[in-house]
Specification:
Length: 448
């Protein structure tokens, strides 16, 4: 009996080791394919400041473009082009044009854009536009119309896959516009091909954080909002958490922050679309509007996370159609939400939870999502006005980000910490879009 148990344990251990070797082999292939892609070397270098997140991002990126799924490879790249063009990200558009042609896609899709795209793809245009700029207007009827029986309509599994593709490339385009291009201008003379990347499977093998690499951009003496000041506020807030405000007060504070979002300057100008992107973008004047100023407020109420959240409903809905993809997204959310080196600027051994949570909840507040149990007063306490302005621009108008504004924020932090925040910005927006879209899919699914 003991021998049988010992043999069973040895077999289980051998299987676990075999699975880990297979995972390492798969990751090595992914890293070889993407990290050696010179077109993206700067994007991977910037994201590689946080190797564990880079690994999770690349696994999702690779699966969306090449993994099992209901859409042909050329159609996936065409959707990537449309999603990236919505935020004027020529960096991504050009890359996926080349991939589409390399994989045998119709050259007219690239040269003529939407006019030559399959009718089935053209039907996605409005959905892509809504997900990029005003996901709260998405309803079950949009899903019903796209999946109704008939020529050129979508199956529900195809549509869910397309939605995840679109929001993934909205995220990637935003991160490139708000962070990668800002860092590229800072490091344009550096040889970027010499950097060595190692996939991080677990937190414990992530690279050690180099506390000596402090950002010296700008003069910290002119920065009003320093890390020392922030740490003092965090200490005060921790003391207040023992006695949270009543529910009605929490609700009032959310609405106060929502209204304050309107006061944060934004780049509401209609973007100028470059000629090489113009045939992929129509309705250029359809842009983000402050959620508090939305029309038909009764029709588009605040999205309460307690009514429909990622862990229970969002994940489950995607898992119905593609379990692997749902798990990859979940892993990526957990990675970015838990990512910390316990440092802030020159300080170490710091619990950064309050700052990370305030950033995440502020971003989702911009997109009309409320966490009922969160005290939104912490947002104004922990996020300086200039930082909130850049976060809003990065999330809502990424093509309007400027190097001057990028350099003006978080001067007292390390560069890698600024990159961390902007990765958080992208993921919080992505999750917001998935919550709205999966709720619409769920409502359609339950009534059909």
């Amino acid at each position: 009996m003991e021998d049988d148990l010992e043999n069973e344990m040895e077999n289980d251990l051998a299987n676990e080791m075999e699975d880990e070797v297979d995972e390492l082999s798969e990751l090595e292939e992914i890293f070889t394919e993407y990290i050696t892609n010179n077109h993206f070397d700067m994007a991977w270098k910037v994201m590689g400041e946080h190797n564990e997140y880079l690994t999770s991002f690349l696994k999702t990126h690779h699966t969306l473009l090449t993994g099992d799924g209901p859409l042909p490879a050329t159609i996936r790249h065409l959707i990537a082009i449309l999603a990236s063009a919505r935020f004027s990200c020529s960096f991504l558009v050009e890359s996926h044009k080349k991939e589409l042609v390399r994989l045998g896609g119709n050259i007219e899709w690239v040269e003529k854009g939407l006019g030559a795209a399959p009718k089935k793809i053209r039907k996605l245009y409005e959905l892509n536009m809504i997900l990029a700029h005003r996901p709260w207007v998405l309803t079950a009827q949009h899903i019903t119309d796209l999946t109704a029986p008939g020529a050129d309509n979508w199956s529900l599994s195809e549509l869910v896959y397309a939605i995840v593709l679109m929001v993934h490339f909205h995220l990637f385009a935003s991160f490139i516009q708000s962070c990668v291009l800002m860092e590229e201008r800072e490091n344009q003379k550096e040889n970027l091909n010499n950097r060595h990347f190692t996939p991080a499977i677990k937190c414990k093998i992530a690279p050690p954080y180099d506390c000596t690499q402090i950002s010296h951009k700008g003069s910290p003496s002119t920065e009003f909002y320093k890390v020392d000041h922030l740490l003092q506020k965090m200490q005060i807030l921790r003391g207040k958490q023992q006695s949270p405000p009543p529910k009605e007060e929490l609700k009032s504070r959310f609405h106060s922050v929502t209204l304050n979002c309107n006061d944060v300057e934004n780049c509401s100008l209609v973007p100028v679309i470059e000629p090489d992107l113009s045939h992929f973008v129509r309705d250029v004047d359809f842009q983000y509007v402050d959620f508090a100023r939305r029309e038909k407020e009764s029709e588009f109420p605040t999205f309460r996370i307690q009514d429909f959240n990622w862990d229970e409903e969002g994940y489950s809905m995607i898992s119905r159609f593609n379990d692997d993809l749902a798990q990859l997204l979940d892993d990526k959310f957990r990675t970015i939400c838990n990512l910390t080196y316990r440092t802030m600027g020159r300080h170490s051994s710091i619990d950064t939870t309050l700052f990370r949570r305030a950033s995440w909840n502020y971003i989702q507040c911009l997109w009309g999502i409320r966490h009922d149990d969160y005290d939104y007063a912490e947002v104004n306490d922990l996020l300086h006005r200039n930082l909130k302005k850049y976060i809003k621009t990065a999330s809502c108008y990424p093509e309007q980000c400027s190097k001057q504004e990028y350099n003006s924020i978080m001067k007292d932090f390390k560069t890698s910490e600024k990159i961390h925040l902007l990765m958080l910005v992208g993921e919080a927006k992505l999750q917001s879009s998935l919550l709205y879209s999966m709720k619409a899919v769920s409502l359609h699914f339950n009534r059909s």
